[in-house]
Amino acid sequence: MQHPPLPQDKDYWILDYSWSSRGGKWSEMTDVMLIGEAVDACGAQALAEWVAQQESSDAQVDGQPRSIFYAGGVRGYLNETEDAAPAARTLYLHSSGQDAFDSLSYYSQEIAEFLQARGCKTAMQWAEARHDRRDHQLAWV
């Protein structure tokens, strides 16, 4: 499923509480997902490094076992992008609760700073997933 990138003038997802009223019903129990794509080799490598530095645990995504990372109020996983250049990677950041949107914005900024510190010149592309999506359902094992 393709998610269009957000219009942005920053390398991170700008906090937007109005997302709670877009893309399906939202509550504190909703799994909010932000999608970040690194579109060049530097960004893909740096993103993989950032993920590797986080705590990890076993979980399930869409009923399939997989390792996920967690940091503060976010959890997620990294996939290589199938329909793009081999160096591209897609990051799926999940959060929930009262601070879900704050956590997603904060960690997107952390990731942007990490990529910049690694010398990456191309910005991540960020997209908001619908709250009522049927895919990327993350559950702890």
Describe this structure in words.
It is a single chain. The protein has 2 helices and 7 strands, in the order βαββββαββ. A hairpin with a 2-residue loop joins strand 3 and strand 4 (74-80). It has 141 residues and is α+β, with helices and mostly antiparallel strands. It is globular, with a radius of gyration of 14 Å. The chain has a 7-stranded antiparallel beta sheet with strand order 6-1-5-4-3-2-7. It has helices spanning 41-52, 100-117, and strands spanning 32-38, 55-61, 64-71, 74-80, 89-95, 125-128, 138-140. 30% of the residues are buried. It starts with 31 loop residues before the first strand and ends with a strand.
Largest sheet data? 7 strands, antiparallel
pLDDT averaged over residues: 87
Structural class: alpha+beta
Strand order of the largest sheet: 6-1-5-4-3-2-7
The count of DSSP E runs of length 2 or more, i.e. the number of strands, is 7
Q: Uncertain spans, ≥5 residues at pLDDT below 50? A: 1-9
What's the number of helices?
A: 2
Secondary-structure element string: EHEEEEHEE
Shape descriptor reads globular
Q: Helicity level, as a percent range?
A: 10-25%
Rg over CA atoms, rounded to whole Å, is: 14 Å
Terminal residue distance: 25 Å
Work out the strand percent.
25-35%
